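Problem 12. The chain below contains 209 residues. Write out its predicted structure in token notation.
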Amino acid sequence: MIQNILAWLVGVVSAVISALGYPGIVLLMAMTSMGIAIPSELIMPFAGFLVAQGKFSLIAAATAGAVGENIGAGIAYEIGKRGGRPLILRYGRYLLIDAPHVDAAERFFARWGSVAALIGRLLPIVRSFVAFPAGIARMNRAKFHLFTTLGSWPWCFALAWAGMKLGKAWDTDPRLRAAFHSVEAVVVVVLVAGAAFYIWHRVKAIRKG
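Solution.
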């Protein structure tokens, strides 16, 4: 089941970005910022691969990712503000949003306060849920979006840069292709395994709930 979900996600990410370009990055990153199970670790490296092919600009791709994160985070903030925890838990299961993830985000926000909107965007898993407790706490909106941008842009840039470097090393120089063949294989396996674990962890938590 997990393999099928992961294969479907890879297909969705590549199809949406290939078809829509930068707006596709915005759309997908908005979804992941709302807690929907589309890992940014799949989205931005593929965008970086297209940078290596000359179809995207690295800066523009990272910026599109950060814009998408702000849009999704803004929606998640409003859900938290208007509906609170009960609404998130009642309907979130249909998007693979479960109580343990919301709990973790709330504890993180309680510990770090407003700066959690910045730090949380640099951390896997937490980054997809931190907007909900920010909304519940009614964090200042201007500060929320400023911190979201400051945390999101470096994350998006780093993932896109990794995808770009991998794409360039593979496509432009046969010697580099030979030299980095084993390294590339490891990177791909790690990325796919990480994404698979992410999906598996969330599906398992939903089933327990």
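Discussion. The two ends are 18 Å apart (CA to CA). Students who got a different answer should revisit the alignment rule from Section 12.3.
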